[in-house]
């Protein structure tokens, strides 16, 4: 449900006034349209008045994110070459300039909001992110795959899962 809320917020920013239509499929014209892949962006580290084990853990997660994102983003450039159709790579903060330039799809997930790095997850809870191919022109979110938090920086896996979903839809 949280993923749906975050996707809805993304959609609202994109100019849609209502929740997207969700489909469990691959867009029929994906081979003819460009998709946008999102790189990770650095986040501002939290400042805590009091140091606790919880705040130290949150800060460690944030520092780790900022530390690994350059290497992860470099791997996206290589992994994206395995994608069989046209694509562009950008950051979440510059996504809308490409959307205005006519790009139709974006591989979207709530992972790019980085809210999961602002709090400590519940103990023994596996954090899983859903990935959607979002049709920015028609307000449709195609559910494609899920990845656990530990793998969100592994763009080779992200592209592999996307390609597998495309192949399964044929």
Task: Lay out the secondary structure.
Layout: H1 2-13, E1 21-23, E2 35-38, H2 53-79, E3 87-90, H3 95-100, E4 105-109, E5 128-135, E6 140-148, H4 155-169
Parallel strand pairs: 1-6, 2-3, 2-4
Antiparallel strand pairs: 4-5, 5-6
Beta-strand content: 15-25%
User: For the terminal residues, how far apart are their CA atoms?
Assistant: 29 Å
Structural class: alpha/beta
Compressed to H and E, one letter per element, the order equals HEEHEHEEEH
Query: How many DSSP-defined strands?
Result: 6
Helix percentage range: 25-40%
Tally of helical runs? 4
How does the overall form come out from the CA principal axes?
A: elongated
Return Rg in Å: 16 Å
Q: Which strand order spans the largest sheet, edge to edge or round the barrel? A: 1-6-5-4-2-3
Overall tally of structural domains: 1
- Give the rounded overall mean pLDDT: 88
Query: Ranges with pLDDT <50 over ≥5 residues?
Result: 1-9
Summarize the biggest pleated sheet.
6 strands, mixed
Explain what this protein looks like in three dimensions.
Helix content is 35%, strand content 19%. The chain is α/β, with parallel strands linked by helices. It has a 6-stranded mixed beta sheet.
Briefly summarize what is shown.
With 170 residues, the chain is α/β, with parallel strands linked by helices. The chain has helices at residues 2-13, 53-79, 95-100, 155-169, and strands spanning 21-23, 35-38, 87-90, 105-109, 128-135, 140-148.
Note the main attributes of this structure.
single chain, 170 residues, elongated, 35% helix, alpha/beta, six-stranded mixed sheet, disordered N terminus
């Amino acid at each position: 449900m949280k993923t749906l809320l975050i996707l809805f917020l993304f959609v609202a920013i994109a100019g849609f006034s209502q929740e997207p239509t969700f489909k469990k499929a691959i867009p029929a014209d994906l081979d003819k349209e460009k998709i946008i892949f999102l790189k990770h962006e650095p986040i501002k580290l939290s400042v805590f008045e009091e140091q606790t084990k919880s705040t130290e853990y949150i800060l460690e997660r944030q520092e780790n994110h900022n530390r690994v994102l350059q290497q992860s983003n470099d791997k996206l450039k290589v992994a994206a070459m395995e994608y069989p159709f046209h694509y562009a790579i950008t950051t979440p903060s510059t996504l809308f300039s490409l959307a205005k330039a006519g790009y139709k799809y974006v591989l979207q997930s709530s992972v790019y909001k980085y809210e999961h790095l602002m709090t400590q997850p519940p103990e023994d809870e596996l954090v899983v992110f859903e990935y959607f191919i979002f049709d920015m022109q028609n307000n449709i979110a195609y559910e494609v795959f899920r990845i656990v938090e530990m793998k969100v920086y592994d763009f080779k896996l992200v592209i592999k899962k996307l390609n597998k979903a495309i192949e399964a839809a044929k």
